[in-house]
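Suppose a colleague, Dr. K., hands you the sequence of a protein chain of 128 amino acids and asks what its three-dimensional shape might be. Before reaching for any lab equipment, you can write down a predicted structure in token form. Begin with the sequence itself:
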Amino acid sequence: MDHTGVTASHRPQPQPQPQPQPHRQSTVEVVAYRATWPADFASERTVLAAATGGEAVTIEHIGSTAVPGMSSKPTIDILMVFERADDVADHLRALADVGYELRPGAFPDRAGHLFMRKVVEGRRLVHL
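The predicted structure, expressed as tokens, is then:
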């Protein structure tokens, strides 16, 4: 008798699906454009470049605070790009040392994306 075939141990196993997060109500603060936002970004870019040894390919000011005259949540959004995903992991401790907190699971469906934030006195100042 031939027992060729797929056994239970060889069947593809279902992959766990991300679980929806419970909805949290929070107040979103939107403020008038602040002329200091470009300088705030430039200062933070200097901090990030130093913390990562200048290894980032680019560090860009993105989001609504980067648009002159646009009202926005008062949080600077920054995109920092590295050549390889492993390069980011090499710098997580240095980024934590300058105040960034890793938020795991923020991009569950996007390999190579990490989200960090800098919170000072209960206020989110930067999203990275």
